[in-house]
Predict the 3D structure of the following.
Amino acid sequence: MMKRKPILLYSLALLLAVGACTIVAPNGTTGSATVSGDTAGTTGGAYPFGKRIKTSGCRAEGALQDSACTPGDILPEATKAMICVPGYAKTVRNVPTSVKNAVYAEYDITRHVAGEYEVDHLVSLELGGSNDISNLWPEAAAPKPGFHEKDKVENWLHAQVCAGNISLHDAQVQIAANWLAVYNRMSASPR
């Protein structure tokens, strides 16, 4: 049993050094994210958190946000230790009605019924997401997958981070770049 430990440690170190995650952004570009989270993104560099290209005429692409309007944003001071404390998200949640209305306006949604949409954090608060408008979008409940299914992705990634199976940064990049791909991987895996 002791002889296996060095091999396992070597394998883990190699995995951390090489990385193991391919990210597919909503616009179809791909890149890699290292397990350590040092350099992650859809273009080989750092993921463009908070960098909006447009602020009007936003259009969701099926279950995905318009990444030009909603690239996602994070609280850089959020750490694994902070987000893994039960109740953390409640301590940072602060999205005024005026900001929610601005989100609907950017996506040209002039009217909706209760439960049709949810102004959602792309990078969830439980993953260190920000309340900035660059991290908010009106996510539909239907057709599925919608905001209820994305909630499952958020909970699963949060559990993975807190269990030490994935870095916080890697989880943030995965959910921002393409939460639907994470959902599809989860749905395809045996339960």
About this structure: The CA atoms of residues 26 and 102 lie 22 Å apart. Residues 168-188 form the longest helix (21 residues).
